[in-house]
Every structure is written in C-alpha cells, then in structure tokens.
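=== RUN LOG ===
request id: a7f3
mode: sequence -> structure
chains: 1
length: 377
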Amino acid sequence: MDFHFTEEQKMLQKSARGFLQSECPSSFVLDMEADEKGYTPELWKKMAELGWMALVIPEKYDGVGAGLLDLLVMLEEMGRFCLPGPFFSTLLGSLCIVASGSEEQQKKLLPGVGSGDLILTMALAEPGNRRYNPFLVALEAKAGNDGFLLDGVKLFVPDAHVADYMVCSVRTSGVPGNKDGISLLLVDSKSPGICLTPMKTIGGDKQYEVEFQRVAVPRDQLLGSENQGGDILEQVLRKGSLCKCAEMIGGAQRILDMATEYAKEREQFGRPIGSFQAVQHHCSNMLMDIEGSRYITYKAAWMLEQGIPCAKQVSAAKAWTSEAYKRVAGLGHQIMGATGYIIEHDMPLYSRRAKIAELALGDAGFHREVVAKELGL
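=== RESULT ===
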C-alpha cells in the first residue's frame, strides 16, 4: 500500500481546508450548536456546489464516483474544523442506497442527494439496548400487501429534524441480536405518525428520539431484500466507522497544532513552556497517537476498497482512534491549562466531540469484541 496521497487527493485536501477555514470558524460552530437547525442552507448549498455530497455517488447518477480513501481525506478536514450539520448522517444514508438500492430508488434519490436537495439519516439505536449493537433491532415492521406498518421508537437519530428520508433498521423476522431477519426501509420523514423529540448531547450535535405511531411504509421503499438488511448494515457501518475515524484524526491533529503553538508562545519561569520535557513528551505522545490512528485507518480503508476481508482491521482502527482522540484531547487540556477550558476557546469543542465520536458506531469495547471474535476467541 502507498500511503502517499495522489495529486487529486492533495487538491481535494487543500480545497476542503481552504473552504472550511473561511466558512467554518469556531464561532460559527458554536452558533450552530445553539441554532435549531444546526446548519445553514447557505453553507450546505456551497458544499453541494463543490461536489462534496456527490463524492461517493456513482457518476451515472450525477455523482463524482470517488473512492473511500478520497472521502477520508475530506472527512479529516471536516473533523479539523468541527463542521456542523447533516453531512455525516446524509453520507451514511447515501451509502446504504448505493449499496442496496434498486435502480429505480437510486435514480430517484441519489441525484437529489448529490445536488444537496435531499438530506438523509439512519435510525438504528433503540430503547432498552444497554450498549451498541446494530443487530439488536426490535422495532417490528408488520408486513401487509401494500407495505409495512411501523410501531416503536428509535433513539439518537442524527439530524432527524431536517432529514427528508430515514434509513430505518426494522425486524421482519427473527429475534433481537440476530443479523438475519433485519430489513432496511426508506421512511419518508414527513409520513403521518412520526413524532420527534430532541435529545441533548455533550457534542452539541442534533440527535432525536423518533417515535413511529402506525407509520405506513410502501413496499417499494424496502432497500435490498426482506430479512437480508443485516448484511447491508454491516457493510455500510464498516465504511461509516472508518469515516468517523477520519473525522477524529482531523480533530486530533487540530488539537496538536493548537497545543504546540501555545507551548511555543506561553512563557513560565522565564522561558516557553515547550522547552520543558514534560510538555515536549505530551506533544510527542499526541503525535504518536495521531500517526498511529491515521495509518491504521487508511490501511483498513485501502483493504476495504480492494475487497480484502478486513473486519478485524476496521474494528481495530475504530477502537484505537476513539481512545487516541480522547488521550490527545486530555493532553491538550493539560498543556493549555485553564485557558483551554474557557467556553469561547476552541479546545472544549474538540474534547466534547472526542467523547461523542468515541460512542458513535460503537465504542472501543464493542470493537474490541469484534477483533477478539475475528481472532477466533
């Protein structure tokens, strides 16, 4: 594997960094945390014009047709600037449609996603689940001649308040915990019987409890085959986990940049604090965590793109990067001291996101169990 970026990836990285530096300062991120929507249509439109929403969409549906590695390059920059809004949730939804949607479904939805006209999300978690497991699906979809009827609740659904469609995991057979018997439905968010309740999070992102009260979903909104949605879910969530790793790497890199700059300028006892060995070692440890996260993530993504079995590598990357980001954030706070705890300072943005990113798509404990299973234990 060649770890060097291609010329196209370097251009994408430079373009994304320049755009976000201009359009997404930390003051804007804080404003969006307080905003009801959590993003601005103006910025969303500019991102769509740059082709970001269309990056993973096939060219025949007006997309860019880029690969997973290209996507990670861009997501690193998004993590570096704590980009708010429904990009990540839309990405997961579009990956589901690309992976399993019919020709008619893809033709109907993907061009709208790429143009920024449609926003998507995924509804996975449910009440009663003490820990993350995407196969602990209890929400029953009662099948009828014309479609399915949903009664139940999903939790922590990102950006549900602005999404046009939710990719919802439901149980059409079997029992919670089984991968078989899960189906994926495209649920129109404006359907009668859907009730949204905001859920406050430490990261300041917009997550919702979604209650389905006899919500009718037409049969042609089924993604893939009935009872076979677990395989699709597994495939998409592996890509999603690596995408979340890339976001975390970008955030951790920004913390290191802030910490080293601060250590060079802040003086104590008549000299910069960066001249003290303890601070030097903190910065060195941060760099080692970031570089380790970057290489394990990009290696797993390369394997996934090449079709090489890599469930172990993907989960190792998510487990390692989740904890590395938290370690980097902790050391950043130690170096910056009281300054790094001021709400107007950038540092709390990243330490809060480090915590919520750890839990997204499975924490380190969940992914360690996947690694152990792959090792035959």
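=== NOTES ===
The longest helix spans residues 229-265.
The CA atoms of residues 75 and 200 lie 24 Å apart.
=== END ===
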